[in-house]
Amino acid sequence: MSTSHSVTASGSVMSSEYAKQLGAKLRAIRTQQGLSLHGVEEKSQGRWKAVVVGSYERGDRAVTVQRLAELADFYGVPVQELLPGTTPGGAAEPPPKLRLDLERLAGVPAEKAGPLQRYAATIQSQRGDYNGKVLSIRQDDLRTLAVIYDQSPSVLTEQLISWGVLDADARRAVAHEEL
């Protein structure tokens, strides 16, 4: 059983399977942020060419560690989120995404949801993500919000579900995290 490899410009060898997995992660992050390849080029003001990002995503072109770190920074995610084989505990099924329904959040009284509304606005500002409908948050965000609300993540999750700003699937994400 032979493994095909590609040689990078610096002469190092990268397995094509790893390159494809890395590319799949890059594509997933880009699409989660609602960006097309052309959208990446526009948002980065030409710093990231659509053809280059596309070739990284297909695994046709090796990406240097430096460029990968810069791309992670551009997407606003930790570098390890882009690396293949970094799913926590090798879980067979990843926990569901935590998505805040921003339209419903706007309808929750500020005395209840003020801290969450400010936190969501900060995340949107940092990511440049202003689609206004949903906002993906990370487990770390939920833990931070739980501290702000002085509740456990699971109690806060139930509160957010009752407000209609989180889907009931969020329970599985929190249960997965508490294992």
UniProtKB/TrEMBL annotation:
InterPro entries: BldD-like_C_sf, BldD_C, Cro/C1-type_HTH, Lambda_DNA-bd_dom_sf. CDD domains: BldD_C_like, HTH_XRE. Residues 26-82 form the HTH cro/C1-type domain. It comes from the Bacteria. This is Transcriptional regulator. It comes from Streptomyces nojiriensis.
